[in-house]
Amino acid sequence: MKSRFYLILLILFISIFHGKAQISSGLKFEDINQSGIPVTCLFQDEQRQVWVCSQEGMYIYDGVRLRRNESWASPDLANRSIRCVYKIDREQYYIGCESGLYLFNLKSNSFTLIPETSGIDVRVIIPIDNTTLLFGTMNGVIRFNTATLQVEKVDEIHSYPVIAILTDREKQCLYISNNKGFFEYNLSTKKYTFISLPIHHEKSSLIHAMNYDSKHHCLWLGAEKRLFRYDIARKEFQEKQLFSNNTINTISIDSSGNIWVGTDSGICTYNDETGNEKYLMHSSRSNKYVIWAIFEDKNKNIWVGTDSGLSLYKNNPFVQIHRWEDMSDQNEGNRMTCIFKDSRGNYWFGGTNGLGRLAPGKKQLDWYKVSDKHFFISHDRIRSIYEDSDRDLWVGTNESINRFDYNENRFIHYTIMDSAQIRSADWCQSVFGDTEGHLWISSFLGGVFRVDKKNLIAQEGRIYLAEKPIIRIPEGSDYPATGYKLPYWINWVIYGSQQMGMD
């Protein structure tokens, strides 16, 4: 009985997503917000900050989480739903909402209502020329002059609630979806024409989402349960069967020409040239499946706005995400403090819980910790990583420095002290090698040590006494006994000057 039940579920699932579609969860979407914010649209400013508009106002993504724009939280704006956004220039945007059109100034972070638009539910904004915008509203289409701020209704277009508006490449025609169907409006002749969809059910004839494909000079139309490709020149429809039985809420076209379709049950992607189709399970949370907005930023990342929050698919080819738990195959974490790539192609990841080494061609790293006999390092707090001119790798920790032996795949620990054995190189902040075979080591409270590298390596396992006394002289000062110009140390990291052999 149970197997029959699962078989029925499988048949139902296949009937919903049939054709060439692939069910994919390979794309990793990160949940940015889970607090139930119903996202309506997104945009990115010239500083590449992503702004999120919702039914509860405006938010900005700070790289970690969403922060509410407090200017929108003022009493006259609080809880007003934002419908759409239109960019004017680098610092100004028009914000369409249920109570009118607002001017948003990024520099001053201020919102100003355009009085002439007060009370107009601005749902869609489309540019026609340098001074004319068209608004899709609850009562048809309105013409807005950006120079005079005057508004007037386009009388030839029915006064029905507008769902979506698009223009063609030449901006000769408007394509309008409203509660009565799909229409074409010629801006020159002012002719308003109904376009019949190749379906016969009145409920399914409503167009919920549209987007213009400039490469193929066609429209992508999301009906109640179908996706259509409308060839503008031939005035022909072509239905894409993949999307049958899915209510389509939004359509976006990315920079690679892929069609992203947001539905009530997830995301579908389609490439018109390759015919590749995918259905993406973008979240494990069922209440995150209703997609209302899809946006590609300047780094080719895909942002997905839902009825309860925001998700992000990091698609930037210049950024690779490596999760520590995946590389280490352990449940422990490691807060990164330094990252280094040596001349042999190894990546080194130092943190507060040891040092990781990712060798070329490997997906699993070696994790060096004080508690691991096989992968040992003197202390788990890693403060610096340095490779000298001999390709020797040095790691500064809270327990002095370590040198990595590539032949034996192990770290060798060195204890360094002054001649009086009072001060040590513990809490090593940085290591630097000069052209005369010396290592310069800065340490917290201990000062700066200069040691002979060959002598240091030869005394493995014993306390090494630095040749020079501890240098504890103000930054940039000359050492009075020798005339040495000290290396400057900023934030405890040494870099060398060009005097007395220092590089």
Roughly what is the average pLDDT, rounded to an integer?
A: 83
For the secondary structure, the number of strands is 43
- Give the number of helices: 3
Shape: elongated
Hey, roughly how much beta strand do the residues contain?
35-45%
Largest sheet descriptor = 5 strands, mixed
Structural class: mainly beta
Kindly describe this structure:
By secondary structure, the protein is mostly beta strands. Helix content is 5%, strand content 45%. It has three helices and 43 strands. The strands form eleven sheets. It has a five-stranded mixed β-sheet, with no helix packed on it. Strands 34-35-36-37-41 form a five-stranded mixed β-sheet, with no helix packed on it. Strands 2-29-28-27 form a four-stranded antiparallel β-sheet, with no helix packed on it. β28 and β29 (309-313) form a beta hairpin. The relative contact order is 0.07. Mean pLDDT is 83; it is low at 5-25 and 473-503.
Observed structural traits:
503 residues; disordered C terminus; mainly beta; five-stranded mixed beta sheet; 45% strand
Layout of helices and strands:
Layout: H1 2-16, E1 22-24, E2 29-33, E3 39-44, E4 50-54, E5 57-61, E6 66-68, E7 82-87, E8 92-97, E9 100-105, E10 110-113, E11 122-129, E12 132-137, E13 140-145, E14 151-153, E15 162-167, E16 173-178, E17 181-186, E18 192-195, E19 207-213, E20 218-223, E21 227-231, E22 236-240, E23 248-253, E24 258-263, E25 266-271, E26 277-280, E27 291-296, E28 302-306, E29 309-313, H2 324-328, E30 336-341, E31 347-351, E32 354-358, E33 366-368, E34 382-387, E35 393-397, E36 400-405, E37 410-417, E38 428-433, E39 438-443, E40 447-452, H3 453-458, E41 463-465, E42 488-490, E43 493-495
